[in-house]
Amino acid sequence: MGAPMASHLVKAGHQAFVYTHGKIPSEIAESPAIQCLNARDVAERADIIFIMVPDTPDVEAALFSPNGIAAGLTKGKTVVDMSSISPIATKGFARNIRDLECDYLDAPVSGGEVGARNATLSIMVGGDEAVFERVKPLFDLMGKNITLVGGNGDGQTAKVANQIIVALNIEAVGEALLFASRAGADPERVREALMGGFASSKVLEVHGPRMINRRFEPGFRIELHQKDLNLALSSARALGVSLPNTATAQELFNSCAAHGGKAWDHSAMVRALEKLTNFEIGQKA
Question: Is 159 one of the annotated active-site residues of the chain?
Fold first, then answer.
């Protein structure tokens, strides 16, 4: 997702300095963006440094490895982490960056690869309001629904809450369409009927057709949603909060992964439900 997000900044006329593990995506390599040797090089040359990597250890490495961002920072620069990671770890990362007299925002996103390419991401931000206002014109180039949730870590907390809701909605839509299909109804017509009522949701709109038509190419991979629910469940344990249905959704994702589906789109959670029922949506009852 980082490549299309960066390309929006470049197309808007901003000078971008970029680094990634592996091959630079063609849309960035063929742009005016300047390729850097490592994350430290990016931090030395840029005033605002964006991070977009998969998980908490990746952010820690990007920030604090010997050639990481922290090694290249000077007073007054801003680090913006747009990954989806641990809220608890984020607070520690933010303290360490602030100790270097720099600013830190956590700004995870929702909307997937499609949202990144269309610049329609929802961006949930944690950090100081003045820093948020300074960076917001850049967020506006990448997303549509941009909200300052609170202090550092609160953006990541909002993203974890988002992923709980999305997972449980996928499970609910999967159960409903499986039930309708097993009862002999046309699942697509049932979906159309539900879209007009209180059961309507983005998941029903976008992922309902995926379930009905068996299109499970990602999208948003199951292994990434597993990571996000791990964050939810581990944070809940630390907070003494019970999330029983989140745990169930995670077990359904785990079942998909056990059947070789960790790279399936997360709408493929329905396949775990189908195995429990020994029936596929669209199959003749």
Answer: yes
d(C-alpha 60, C-alpha 64), whole Å:
6
135 CB-near residues (< 8 Å, 6+ apart): 48, 78, 80, 105, 107
Query: What is the spatial distance between Cα 83 and Cα 106, in angstroms, rounded to a whole number?
Result: 8
Whole-prediction pTM = 0.91
CA 59 to CA 97: how far, in whole Å?
13
Residue with tokens 């948003």: 220
State pLDDT tens for residues 185-227.
999 999 999 999 999 999 999 999 999 999 999 989 999 999 9
- Going by C-beta distance under 8 Å and a sequence separation of 6 or more, which residues neighbour residue 82? 2, 5, 50, 51, 52, 107, 108, 109, 123
C-beta separation of 232 from 163 below 8 A: yes
Handedness of CA 170, 159, 44, 118 (dihedral sign): positive
Extended beta strands in the chain, E state: 17-18, 34-35, 48-51, 78-81, 103-106, 109-110, 121-126, 143-150
Three-point CA angle 20, 60, 108, nearest 5°? 75
Provide the token pair at 27.
């849309």
Contact 87, 157 (CB under 8 A): yes
Q: Which residue among 75, 77, 159, 275 is the active-site one?
A: 159
